Amino acid sequence: MPFAADRPLRLAPATASDYRELARRRLPRQLFDYVDGGAYDELTMRANVRDLQEVLLRQVVMRDVSVREPSVEVLGQRLALPIVLAPVGLAGMMAPRAEVQAARAAEAAGVPFVESTVSICSIEEVAAATSTPPWFQLYVMRDRAYAEDLVERARSVGSPVLVLTVDLAVVGARHRDTRNAMVGTPSRWAQIRRGLDLASHPGWIRSTAIGGKPLTFGNLEKAVPQARRPDAFKDWVDSQFDPSVTWDDIAWVRERWPGRLVVKGVLDPEDARRAVDAGVDGLVVSNHGGRQLDAVPSTARALPDVADAVGDEVEILADGGVRTGLDVVKMVALGARAVLVGRPWAWAVAARGEAGVRHVLDVFKADIDTALGLTGQTSIADVDRSALYEAPAVTRHD
After folding, report:
1. Residue 6 lies in a domain
2. How does pLDDT run across 275-292, given as a tens digit for each residue?
3. CATH code of the domain containing 123
């Protein structure tokens, strides 16, 4: 009899949420919770989804919407959809060579894939598997020589965009990871529980633990030997993420990166203005998917104020809480040029590999097309706040 985690859903997955359920069954709990969870009480993580759900689209009828255009130009690239696959650390633990599978799916859909600093597959492996170079996400580390090496590696494979993540001066407490002994020094009992968790998922062991080797940080193993293993991730984070970084350090990155430069992790309008003054090409309005500081505003609430603060001076992207193509249209209406999608592709690749990611992107595309048609829009590039009934409301949840 198959383990419960390996039993398929009775119905075919139709949404990102369906893939979440399938991923929950197929992944060891410690890995599912790592992707699925947020910081502290996960208030912001839940608010990302809830506040976006409460944004209302304005249905408009009797307009000629026989031709609908979902493509948009972002940072000098023409994207088939206003979607970017967000960087997801440790994604290669979810499925064999998951970053490669997701990058292939993104390329097939005509959207970019962002390679994480802490990916399992190296940027060279991902670039070799596709004809479209990935974007690269960089943390500014204490070891600037190694950060510089990562930038050069991204340049060497032709990455067109560097996404500098700036909201990790310190790491938020992710209680699910603590309970699952993913961080800290686990007790013997915790080690036993982790072993039983892994052993109860033989499908994952066959496909990923064995079939997806090597399970090491592909972008880190050459220069940071102590961070080769995912279980050493927290120690490396504590030793390398640099809390002394300021806006002045953007110049250091600019000197070494000739392509488009985006800062990710901006929520405050004043910070957005500082990003403009620092000379970046774009910014990502983001609270790190609710995985850093809890009880901060959701992206849907923060995005309009940031967009108003910078206008057209830089390109604005956003992430957080996006689960459908309708959410993508809402984010665009609130002020984003395009939207980074993280958890949905991680769930999909865990559940069904590249085919799952392709399917999720197809569903998003169909959602966007429907939303354009029923809001009286012919192009996603023209969508603005007039497509909404109102901005996200402040809702009490006692």
Report:
1. no
2. 999 999 999 999 999 999
3. 3.20.20.70
